[in-house]
Backbone:
């Protein structure tokens, strides 16, 4: 059985088109940023803030851009200050 449609993921912050998008199987943070039409000039591109439900508890962690995304995740691309 294959899932026809997945839940959404959310990407916010320093991307060109922040918002909600359909999850794609085996997606990474970098691929999610590409779906949101890439990073802005001020984006911090090495690590992003990811919020996910772990064992029923919402947790926020810093992850590298090759980190896998799951449906329901919220990705926040931070601004660099230099």
Residues:
């Amino acid at each position: 059985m294959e899932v026809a449609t997945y839940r959404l993921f959310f990407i916010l912050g320093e991307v060109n088109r922040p918002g909600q998008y359909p999850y794609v199987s085996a997606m990474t943070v970098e691929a999610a940023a590409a779906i949101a039409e890439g990073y802005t000039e001020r984006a911090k591109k090495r690590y992003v803030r990811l919020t996910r439900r772990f064992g029923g508890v919402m947790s926020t962690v810093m992850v590298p851009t090759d980190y896998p995304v799951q449906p329901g995740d919220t990705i926040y691309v931070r601004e660099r200050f230099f």
Summary: The radius of gyration is 13 Å. Residues 1-46 form one domain.
